[in-house]
Amino acid sequence: MKRLDILAALSVLIIAGLWYCLGSFYGGHGKEDLYAVIYVDGEVYKSLPLDRDESLTVKGHGGMSCLVDITSGRADVTEADCPDKLCVRQKSIGSYGETIVCLPARIVIEIKGGEASENLYDAVSQ
Amino acid sequence: MLLSLALILSYIESLLPDFTGIPGVKLGLANSMTLITMEIYGRREAFIVLILRILLTGLLFGNMFGILFSLSGGLLAFLAMAVSYGIRGNDSSFGSARHETEPVPKSMPDFAERHGAGFSIIGVSILGAVFHNIGQLCAAAFIVKELKIVYYGPVLLVSGLFTGFLVGFLAKLILPRLKIISGKGEML
User: What is the rounded radius of gyration, in angstroms, for the C-alpha atoms of chain B?
Assistant: First the structure.
């Protein structure tokens, strides 16, 4: 390892650090930005912002439904009348990309960022 | 022969599981062959080996689509490596598997004499790895048309640092032994 190597390596590190700071400054996933998007049978059912506490009963396939709770920026399924109740047992989700799934009712809840949620024209209200 | 070694390395690497969940983080072992070719045969040959390796890897082991990514990373990496190799000075890490008649590139006569400065093969490798990742990041952002991918930048840079170091170290180990095997550092 020569001096110039170390110089190059340090430069890369510094640039990476700066890049990261710029990223957090401009982009950072603030809670205001995130939505819990609820899909039933593959179609968008409703999109709930994570920054507002809310409860919603989602009617899924075959008459089964689950209760989606949003508290403190996280979404969770607290009750469901599906046979396996796996959805209830799944942990709460709060970060981009995380999901909760109820297979029998064909309900999928996914966390998405702000921009993506603006295109949800087919939200069906309860 | 170095080309086939590079292909094998690519293949073996493709078999490895994804150690980090991060897309684009890979060892890039085959680049050690690019470095070795660069030292023994020169940059032009290294370029040819690189292009062929990318094309053949895509054709034989991977998908054609991946070739686009590999090319964008590889070309940018080669640019960085070629430039830094030109600034290499007099350094034993290159293993002197080449003729000793050309110790220092003409481009750096006095500076190298005075400081023994310039990059070692590890530095060349690091820059290669880093720029490879940058190139792939840009290609990905372009193809997916999603600028947010750029947030991956810092992670890829740092990973390039590490993998570049490892691969460079590997090349550094191999080069002097090639000289031993071939006796005089002549053509393999």
Answer: 17
Quick check: B56 contacting A, CB < 8 Å?
Answer: no
A17-45 pLDDT tens trace? 888 888 777 665 554 578 888 888 888 88
Q: What does the DSSP assignment read for B28-68?
A: -TTHHHHHHHHHHT-HHHHHHHHHHHHHHHHHHTS-HHHHH
Q: What is the mean pLDDT of residues B95-114?
A: 43
Q: How far is B92 from chain A (nearest CA, A)?
A: 10
Distance from the A4 Cα atom to the nearest Cα atom in chain B, whole angstroms: 6
pLDDT of B99: 41
What pTM, to 2 d.p., does this model score? 0.60
Please give the full DSSP string across A65-113, using - where no structure is assigned. EEEEEEETTEEEEEEE-SSS-HHHHSPPB-STT-EEEETTTTEEEEEE-
ipTM of the modeled complex:
0.70
DSSP H or E run through B175: helix B153-182
- Structure tokens belonging to residue A81: 């009348």
